[in-house]
Amino acid sequence: MSSAVISRRSRPGRPGRPRHVPAVDNTLSGREQILDAAARLFVDRGFAATSTREIAERVGIRQASLYYYFSNKDKILEELLALTVRPTLDQIDRVEAVANEHGEAAALYALVMIDTGTLAEAPHNTGLLPSLPEVRSLEQFKPYRAVHADLVDAYGRLGSHVAGRQVDGILVAHLVESVVASRSEGADVNETARHAIATAALGACGATKNEIKIASAVAWAELIA
Amino acid sequence: MSSAVISRRSRPGRPGRPRHVPAVDNTLSGREQILDAAARLFVDRGFAATSTREIAERVGIRQASLYYYFSNKDKILEELLALTVRPTLDQIDRVEAVANEHGEAAALYALVMIDTGTLAEAPHNTGLLPSLPEVRSLEQFKPYRAVHADLVDAYGRLGSHVAGRQVDGILVAHLVESVVASRSEGADVNETARHAIATAALGACGATKNEIKIASAVAWAELIA
DNA sequence: ATTATCTATAGATCTATAGATAATGC
DNA sequence: ATTATCTATAGATCTATAGATAATGC
């Protein structure tokens, strides 16, 4: 049973009728190849403007073959969204811990570093997907909007503590999302760039240069640990 | 000749076959009614996901009647984009003047106030349109991307002066665009909120509380003038 | 037998054009 | 005569389903 789970690397040498064009990359399963192609297309043309035929074409399969893995087009985007938010959610507990032990400034710095890291690493800049109009408006993507709203709340809570006044989490969230815009323009978002964003975020919350320096050092030490 | 230009308020009492449903708002020309309906739909569903039939339906005309005013669907979006950027471009000289007379911090504060003002006032939150995937990717919208890039450059230039080190204009631009996100969530973006954004922007560029206070006062005096 | 593909296609769009028509204005 | 609409429709999609088929695995 667990062996069945482990062998989720089904390619290559799997059974099934051969493709009309052989797969380019055999390290990815069929499902993963579809997600990969769809991610690229959704990110640079949008969801509605991308047809299932285009996705299939990039993979090297026929349009109808997509439906063997996904019951409809929405489901492909849903899965990509889930993959996009997961890495940040997985680390949210660490931020909580930093807040308790070292205060909100260090925690805010840490959260910005984690979140920018997730966005900087996301394959094909999928951090852009949550801002697609369909994700913002359609009922089926509500769960992902909720996750994002929680993150914005966390920014607002931490930021308000740092500033000593009400700070809108959207402000900080948007600073963080500048990573996506930078990547869209082909920039490499490295650790230095992410520290600049974290510094800007604390500055936007009214922290002094010295407070930022301390928060940075603490966050750094904790994230390594 | 000039009278022909002036009488661009063609409704009501214009000739032409009656609509199958009479117009709701006769203070707007047919063209303006189309732009208004399209703006709402493009903002909350996106461009590709909005059909010409839906736009026409909202206006109360038949789908084909749109083509009397616009040669194709793209042209509607192009016009909305032009209307969206115009107010900020119209005031860009004033920012230049502030920079020369009072320094970059005041100018940055002023630019943020102007730009957030434009976004806060844009009908139906059309400040969101530049971030639609089609506008980012399709050839015909290149002019609007160029205008936006210029604005980002201005933020970078002013921000770098304030910080005394290289600051990425995208950071500041994203703080400003948080106005759009706030409006999307139904928030009222008033002058207080805009001052908070300008303050955060200068803080993100490393300005001290006192520098921000001065920049705010100067920008305020100059924008009134 | 199972799996992963394929072919074929139904049915529902969607954009844009052609040409008719119902008003007003002269 | 001019204007702003209408009706009708061509032609090009696009999504999803039904059912066939070519491999491997047992």
Search tags:
homodimer, 225 residues, elongated, DNA-binding
Short characterization:
The first copy, chain A, is mainly α and 225 residues long. Helix content of chain A is 66%, strand content 0%.
Plain-language structure description:
2 copies of one chain form a homodimer. In chain A, helix 4 (73-89) packs antiparallel against helix 6 (104-121), helix 6 runs parallel beside helix 9 (169-184) and helix 6 (104-121) crosses helix 11. Chain A is mainly α and 225 residues long. The first copy, chain A, has helices at residues 2-6, 30-45, 52-59, 73-89, 92-102, 104-121, 133-137, 142-163, 169-184, 191-204, 209-224. Chain A is elongated, with a radius of gyration of 20 Å. Chain A contains 11 helices and no strands. The first copy, chain A, starts with a helix and ends with a helix. The interface between A and B is large, with 37 and 38 residues. Chain A binds a DNA duplex (26 and 26 nucleotides) through loops.
Uncertain residue segments of chain A: 1-9
How many strand elements of chain A? Answer: 0
Strand content of chain A: under 5%
* Shape designation of chain A: elongated
The number of helices of chain A is 11
Distance between the termini of chain A: 35 Å
What is the mean pLDDT of chain A?
92
Order of helices and strands of chain A: HHHHHHHHHHH
- Largest Cβ-defined interface: A-B, 37 and 38 residues
The level of helicity of chain A is 55-70%
Structural class of chain A: mainly alpha
Biggest beta-sheet profile of chain A? none
Radius of gyration of chain A: 20 Å
Assembly of the depicted chains: homodimer
